[in-house]
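Lab notes, practical 5.
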Amino acid sequence: MKRLSTERKEEVRKLSKKTREKNELDRLKREVTSRLVEKGVTERSRMEKCYEKLLEGLVREHESVLRDLEEKRRLLGQEVVGVYLEEERRRRVEEENGGD
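Output from the prediction step:
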């Protein structure tokens, strides 16, 4: 947007060199301003679409990472329970063998 502002100033400067008539200069300034506003709106909408695409991609990636994390948590939870049950079974076997 700053680039557009600089561009407008340059065009107005060039126009002021071409004509000395105040009404003509004012009309040309309005035309330049109008044209640059349209350019700004177009650029903003283009950038907004790019942002939306980027955001959609990041949301999909986030959801994928979240699903992977939840799956790993589930698997680790199962593994911990499995290790616990194995240790508990082994402890009972040792108690039974030691108690004889």
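Observations recorded by the TA: The mean pLDDT is 88. The two ends are 86 Å apart (CA to CA).
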